[in-house]
Amino acid sequence: MVKKEIKIQNIVASASLEHDIPLIKLAEALPNTEYNPEQFPGLVMRIKEPKTSALIFSSGKIVCTGAKSMSKVKQAVAAIIKHIEKIKIKIKIVPKINVQNMVASGDIGMDLNLNSLAMDLENTEYEPEQFPGLVYKLPGTRATFLLFSNGKIVCTGTRSESKLREAVDLLVKTLSKVNKK
């Protein structure tokens, strides 16, 4: 049995607060923000706990990044709402959080011959002169993997922890078959 270790490094999630947000007022009231509407329409808010960043748009749409678990995403959204309430805006809903992307890294516990994988697998990109990893889009999933010869991996594109684990399991099955050739 192959040992697999995988750890979520970043979750990108979006939500709507269903309330217009006066971004200039928010930027003036809070020290942990950056707002430059000439360059980008969203306000950037940095949250200390959990350590995340958020883009907040005047429409009330938010994008949160940097959390390493769904509970941290929920804490970050709650912190954003708390900050917005400091400028006397009451968010009356519990926003529905939509995961847009998860990035995870880990080790699948097997050495990989990236040259032969680039030949044997479809949907790969491998240019060792430019980058030491092989990019592999796993068929039938949203997952894209970076594979390294020492068995280390990075996975991006999944939207839930269960889909992430399924993709890693399928990757290991696929690589085990190809490695036996």
How do you describe this structure in short?
By secondary structure, this protein is α+β, with helices and mostly antiparallel strands. The protein has helices spanning 23-29, 70-85, 114-120, 161-180, and strands at 5-16, 33-34, 43-47, 52-56, 61-67, 98-107, 124-125, 134-137, 144-147, 152-158.
User: What structural category do the secondary elements indicate?
Assistant: alpha+beta
Count the domains: 2
What is the name of the CATH superfamily of the largest domain? TATA-Binding Protein
Shape: elongated
**Intertermini distance:** 18 Å
C-alpha Rg (nearest Å): 20 Å
**Unreliable sequence segments:** none
Molecular structure report:
With 181 residues, this protein is an alpha+beta fold. The chain has helices at 23-29, 70-85, 114-120, 161-180; strands at residues 5-16, 33-34, 43-47, 52-56, 61-67, 98-107, 124-125, 134-137, 144-147, 152-158. It has two domains: 13-99, TATA-Binding Protein, CATH 3.30.310.10; 108-180, TATA-Binding Protein. The chain has four helices and ten strands, in the order E-H-E-E-E-E-H-E-H-E-E-E-E-H. The protein has a ten-stranded antiparallel β-sheet, covered by helices on one side. A hairpin with a 4-residue loop joins strand 3 (43-47) and strand 4 (52-56). The two termini are 18 Å apart. 22% of the residues are buried.
